Each structure stands twice: as C-alpha cells, then as structure tokens.
C-alpha cells in the first residue's frame, strides 16, 4: 500500500512538473510574441503571424548554436531558464497539438541539407527526436529548381493555403541548410454564424473614415469581459471541443489602439487580457475577414537582440556543422588553402494566412530559416452587445497550453 502511495505521489510530481514546464514555454512564446509585435505590426493596418511557428523553429535552431550566438537566441526567445529541457517540452506540445481531434491541426518540421555538407549527428538526432523533423537533401537538379520540392512540401502540409514561399534563386550553391516549420489550423465554431445574417455594415477606420465590410451576427452565450479600467472589451469565441478559441480584444476608443498594442510587450499582459471572462448572453457582430502576411524577420529579430546569428564570421553554429565555428580562416601555407568558413543565418521568412468565416476559421503559417555558408441564431434576450465595428487585436489560442498559434490585427 505504501509502495502504491509512493508511486501515485511520484506520478503527481511528474505531472505537476510537466504542467509547470508547459506553462513556462507558453509564457516564453507569448513574451517573445509581444516583443515581436512591436517590431512588425505597429505600422501595419492588417497583419497575421504565428508566434508558435516562429518561436519553435528558432528554438530548434538554438540547439545547434553555441557561445554568444546561443545566448542571444535563447534570451530573445525567453527560454534560457528552461535550459536543454525546452526541446523535450516542445516534443510534448507538438504531440498535444497534433493529437486533438475536434479541430484539424497539423504541425510539421523539416530539414533540407546540402548534399555534401556534414551535419553533426547529434543535431539531426535531436531535430527528429524532439521536433519530428523530416530530413532530406536539397536537390539542386530538381525539375523547376531546388525550391520546388520545398514549396511542394509546404503546400501539402498547409492544404495549399500557403504556396510558393521560396522564389527561384532563393537556394544558391552556398545554401547549406533550410529549417522549415509549418502550422495548419481548420476549426469549426462551437456555434456557427448564419450566413443569411451576414450583412454589409459600417466599419470605422483609423483615419476616421468609414468602410463597408461583411459583418457576421448572432445572439449567443459568450465569454466576455468589459474592462473599463484598461478601456477594452474582450470576447472569446470557441471552436468545436472548446480547447481552441479566437480572442478579440476591442479598445473602447480607436485612438487607444496603439496604447493597447504597446502594452503587449509587458510580461503576462496577454494572460491578463485573457482572464476574468464570464459567460454573458450577448448580441454579437464581428467582421468576416481574411488576411495574408509575408515577412522578412531578420530586421525584427536583430532588433530583439539576435545579432550574431546573422553575421558571417561571427555566428557560431558549431553544434550544427563542424564548419560552423566562430572564426573563418583563409590560410595560405605551402600552397594549401583552407577555406573552412562558418555558417550563418542568411534568411528567415514567414508567411501566414487567416480566414474567418461563418462556419469557422482556417489559418496556416510557415517559417523558413536558411543557413548559408559564407558566400444559426439562438433565441436569447441579450444582456450585452459586443459589436466589433472598429480596429481590434486578435489571438487564436490554445486554452490547454496557453500557446498563441496565431496573432494579429484587423483594421478594415
């Protein structure tokens, strides 16, 4: 009996430790997303990106970084405190996401390696072990160019929502490695909107003009919050299974949108926004919208403190390839020339799409990092109104883990 009790206690401790690690990873990814938002979204009227996709692919790459390069990546991703366990935590998160059946959600990782490049076995092993990464060679002789097979992989993983991420010529003879992460989400609302109630209505723009857009309507019980202290309203609209939700954050005044955006850089701000919601019968009206965004992330990542990784001769990815040292030697000695130069990140591109409709939401994202060798209505009596008729911020969030899969802004 005592032995059984000890086993239960041990299991309980392991479960608690696991939950703490998932919370820590969620906080790290959310904090990174809030900082990244300041660099990529403040000047954009409409934007969508995937914090999960960007954070996870950079975390996978961090396993092969060393020295100051490693420290900068981990600090910017807020994963330093998790240490090497971060990869095991990501493994469990990937399993949790891909096993949920009430919505269609798929994540994928892939490494495309230059044929004659020696990748350290430990990096390949950890990428496959923790991130289920597919490993393949870059096919320089592929019909349509070496970019075609990778674009085909991304299109297949995102159900053709995202195509042609790589352009002809993106893969050059000195391209050593491409690290790819894909995320696809297709969720049906717990309660769908009746398309017959969708009408053209006024949406107030940031420049004080008005635009006619499609607005979806319903009367329903909804988790909302009226936060007069911070001047914003929050609504949480659930997908089937009630695990994944679309959270809309609507400032009371249009001129306070920038203040709301800036506040996202504060630690735990998103958690604060997402807590304190209560079920209320509401008259709901939200825009029907679709946003596509393509981003070159290098300027933003540099501004967040990841600098060395993008500098030839400075970047230290010696955990990926033996030629990833932090010093590049050009030595002429008895006519023997050593051109063993380091590898560095030469490109980090991200593309995301979100499509919010009456039946549900489809969203997809891809992040590619290139490593280069130097060279119907319910009959309710609503107590409240939640009318989204001016610019707002949104999060597509996993309630179980706290992970933000997609984040962005809609301004009409």
Automatic annotation (TrEMBL):
Record-annotated Serpin domain positions: 34-411
GO molecular function annotation: serine-type endopeptidase inhibitor activity
Signal peptide: 1-17
Domain of life, per lineage: Eukaryota
GO cellular component: extracellular space
PANTHER family for this protein: GH10112P-RELATED (PTHR11461:SF211), SERINE PROTEASE INHIBITOR, SERPIN (PTHR11461)
Family the UniProt entry places it in: Belongs to the serpin family.
Descriptive protein name: Serpin B6-like
Organism of derivation: Biomphalaria glabrata (Bloodfluke planorb)
GN (gene name): LOC106065709
